[in-house]
């Protein structure tokens, strides 16, 4: 039962041949969530072997080009691949208008259903529940309306352990009864304890995505204790002034948020194109929060089950 | 004095990692014309070493995504690179509305001037004259309004030959007089013949771009005798029926147009993504028009001066 993230584009405003603009895919039990969709995302999705048909939800953090200019092409390509599956899009309401104008001009009729969730209709307390995960939105402070996303795995149903099945060979009606929380008796009439019947439950995994944002301690409350946090780090710590002016974060900002929120692991990205090498950015973040990785196009991380 | 073409994207509807959607750059005396701008064009422009600031004109053949979804990102990047130079865009009038909606949403103010030439305002007989070239448009038959482009080099001013300067060492007022078509006399009072004074003139070079189009013999009149013709060849000859249905061309269609128009050289491209190898497409075209090349991302051709 996968919970893994693949970085499709790790760059910022100006895409480079080896660093496309923002896009990431979160795989939860083989259901894929595409988070942001910068120009060329569909090319890198293909390059990194992502099955297009498994993408069931697309989240767009905000309407700066480096976060959504790849979306129209991807929606077109879904069409050309014969997609019939519904697609959820969570984004600012203006995106719908943009897509309408574009698809009107191209005269391409999208043949699958797009379920558009305008972010303004979602309150912070709400979360959208999908089959295997929930998504909550929270506000980021950037130059235009921008949202962060908290994605949580939904705990799987209880599963019978193999050793219990081998030892007691329950029949179908007994299994149904067990799954309805009834006790199961062994041959001597004793109740079999539930930790002998079930695989122990595991802690549902979680991922938070913060891009783009000025340094903002109020974010900590939304993302407390997540297993994995992606926080933009457009600039080195020595560019703090420019970061503040452009409403972006430095390495230190990202790492400080990770530390205060007690996250499991921090990923940084969205590097300014002035940094061709990210070694020093990673070192800066690690000084504050050691369990940090600097992502790149094609970077992949699995969050294993913790029982 | 360059006249060269670089193919930025040689693919069609679905971009692939090694075959982006349509885009080409024509270099005329180091002034660049970008023709179509599929998704990711800015990434390949960078990969192939094209100087962004030399792009002074962008032509968009039609508003299918694989011909313009890379434009918004490129215009943004021009901004970020600090462009101040005017940019000409020749395209269907709907493109202006699309760009307005997009840049309104992104709240990015374009800081250089875009001179938009809506195609409907250009008649076939007209051509737009720029410093070193003229551009004429002609109608293509495709599923939505689509235009072909004919780009002609403007003949350079007459140039004095080095041997004449060395032999007669004319002073500045004499040079001015010669360039104003006055005769020049040698020491014995004889008129020096003009073929001794000037570098012989050369034939202005020309390029025609046809993408996307159903097979259409009426195009021949617009592109007669061009040095270089790019004609889409989405399909192999055995897919003629599908080509007609989708209003595209086969290899044979492209080569037949080249032959009838007596062009110098034919380039084919815009291959359906079903063709990972284009060898057989090239062979088919060459059967009809031997001087054909099958382009790929990064393909480059120079048209030398012919005096």
What is the CATH superfamily classification of the largest domain in chain A?
Ribonuclease Z/Hydroxyacylglutathione hydrolase-like
Ends distance of chain A: 13 Å
Order of helices and strands of chain A: EEEHEHHEHEEEEHHHEHEHHEHEE
Number of strands of chain A: 14
CATH class of the largest domain in chain A: Alpha Beta
Q: How many individual helices of chain A? A: 11
Mean pLDDT of chain A: 94
- Domains of chain A (count): 2
State which percent range the strand residues of chain A make up.
15-25%
In short:
The structure is a homodimer of 307-residue chains. By secondary structure, the first copy, chain A, is an alpha/beta fold.
Explain this structure to me?
- The structure is a homodimer of 307-residue chains.
- Chain A is an alpha/beta fold and 307 residues long.
- Chain A has two domains: 3-155 and 202-302, Metallo-beta-lactamase, Chain A (4-Layer Sandwich), CATH 3.60.15; 162-197, no CATH class.
- Helix content of chain A is 27%, strand content 24%.
- The first copy, chain A, has helices at 41-47, 65-68, 71-80, 94-106, 162-168, 172-179, 194-197, 220-223, 240-246, 251-260, 279-288; strands at residues 3-9, 23-28, 31-37, 55-59, 87-91, 114-118, 128-129, 133-140, 146-153, 206-210, 228-232, 265-269, 292-294, 300-302.
- In chain A, the strands form two sheets. A seven-stranded mixed β-sheet of chain A has the order 6-5-4-3-2-1-14. In chain A, strands 7-8-9-10-11-12-13 form a seven-stranded mixed β-sheet, with helices on one face.
- In chain A, a hairpin with a 2-residue loop joins β2 (23-28) and β3 (31-37).
- In chain A, α10 runs parallel beside α11.
- Chain A is globular, with a radius of gyration of 22 Å.
- The two termini of chain A are 13 Å apart.
- The model of chain A has no long low-confidence stretch (mean pLDDT 94).
- The interface between A and B is large, with 39 and 39 residues.
């Amino acid at each position: 039962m996968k919970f893994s993230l693949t970085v499709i584009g790790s760059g910022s405003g100006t895409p480079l041949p080896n660093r496309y603009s923002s896009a990431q895919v979160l795989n939860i039990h083989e259901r894929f969530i595409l988070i942001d969709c910068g120009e060329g995302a569909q090319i890198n999705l293909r390059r990194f072997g992502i099955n297009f048909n498994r993408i069931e939800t697309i989240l767009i953090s905000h309407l700066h080009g480096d976060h959504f200019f790849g979306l129209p092409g991807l929606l077109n390509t879904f069409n050309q691949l014969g997609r019939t599956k519904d697609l959820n899009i969570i984004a600012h309401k203006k995106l719908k208008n943009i897509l309408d104008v574009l698809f009107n001009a191209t005269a391409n009729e999208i043949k699958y259903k797009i379920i558009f969730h305008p972010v303004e209709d979602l309150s912070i307390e709400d979360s959208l529940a999908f089959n295997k995960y929930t998504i909550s939105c929270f506000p980021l402070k950037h130059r235009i309306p921008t949202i962060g996303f908290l994605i949580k795995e939904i705990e799987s149903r209880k599963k019978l352990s193999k050793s219990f099945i081998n030892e007691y060979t329950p029949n179908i009606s007994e299994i149904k009864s067990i799954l309805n929380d009834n006790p199961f008796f062994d041959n001597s009439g004793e109740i079999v304890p539930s930790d002998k019947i079930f695989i122990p439950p595991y802690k549902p995994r979680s991922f938070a995505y913060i891009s783009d944002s000025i340094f903002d301690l109020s974010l900590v409350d939304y993302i407390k204790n997540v297993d994995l946090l992606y926080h933009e780090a457009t600039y080195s710590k020595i560019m703090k002034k420019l970061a503040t002016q452009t409403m972006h974060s430095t390495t230190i900002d990202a790492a400080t948020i990770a530390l205060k929120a007690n996250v499991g692991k921090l990923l940084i990205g969205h590097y300014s194109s002035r940094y061709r090498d990210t070694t020093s950015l990673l070192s800066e973040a690690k000084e504050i929060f050691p369990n940090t990785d600097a992502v790149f196009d094609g970077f992949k991380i699995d969050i294993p089950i913790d029982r």
